[in-house]
Amino acid sequence: MNMERIKPTRSGLFAIELLIAVGVFSLCAAICVGLFVRSEVMSQDSADLNRAVTEARSAAECFKAVGGDLEKTAELTGGQISGDTTLFISYDQSWHKLDAGAEGAFDITLTLRPEDGYTGASLSVQRYDRTEKETTGTTILFWEIAALEVAS
Amino acid sequence: MKRGGGVSGAVSLVMIFCVLCLAVFAVLTLATADREAKLAEMTARSAADYYEADRRAVEIAAALQKGGEPADVAVVWSGDVASFTVPIGEDQALDAAVRVQAGGPCEIVRWRTIYTGEWEPEEYLNVWDGT
Questions:
Q1: Is residue B88 in some structural domain?
Q2: Containing domain of residue B38, as a range?
Q3: How do residues B40-57 score in pLDDT, each as one tens digit?
Q4: B26 CA to chain A: closest CA distance, Å?
Q5: Which residues in chain A are contacts of B49 at CB distance < 8 A?
Q6: How large is the average pLDDT for residues A139-148?
Q7: Could you identify which of A142, B3, B53, B96 might form a hypothetical disulfide with B88, taking C-beta atoms 3.0 to 4.6 angstroms apart as the criterion?
Q8: Does residue B124 form part of some domain?
Q9: CA A106, CA A113: separation in Å to the nearest integer?
Q10: Which H or E run contains A15?
């Protein structure tokens, strides 16, 4: 039996190198794309947190300016009062205010808690992830705020 | 390039360059996003600290209006004006002064954030004196 060794040709080696290069590149690209996606999610969360702080601060200052009056706070902020003690302000994904009763991506909730000599309230910002089956809410911010009575 | 084949190693070199570029940009993007997230959290924490101190100051003002005086806060009276400070986080404080009035809500005279940490002014500036 004639055992002649087959010599690798130049084009064969090039093809093997190309295959390995494409494989390694694909693997590294997949990892890097994962990092890019993670960065995008982190940036979006940071932007949402910054905007939540700004909007919550605005609502808190309105509440303090009117001495804890929920109706006046609703007028100033464009929110909707539910019951006698809760104010909702809804926002869409881009933090534009929504009309009363609309289901938004973000909500600011101000719940009154009358105290002796002043008006306290808990202020929270929730983010909603809505799917066809369910809606999950996450609290981004939670502050306890208070307003002194304002001279009329 | 020779007939029937490629330049040996050129593909690997291009691939290594592309992968390095991708990796560097991915790490830089992630580092920037991480710093942004930390800054956003710091801003949120600082706002939460401020409103916590603000709530405490409102409690104190309401107690003073009712004639009481909180035990854990030093209140300085100047006529009918009561001054006190409430710490905000580590190196800031809410400096407040309220005028206590009988039969009505107290009047806010001062309500400001002050820096309470150590501060060393720069006293030496290396300026060329012309010689």
A1: yes
A2: 10-115
A3: 999 999 999 999 999 999
A4: 6
A5: none
A6: 94
A7: B53
A8: no
A9: 23
A10: helix A10-65
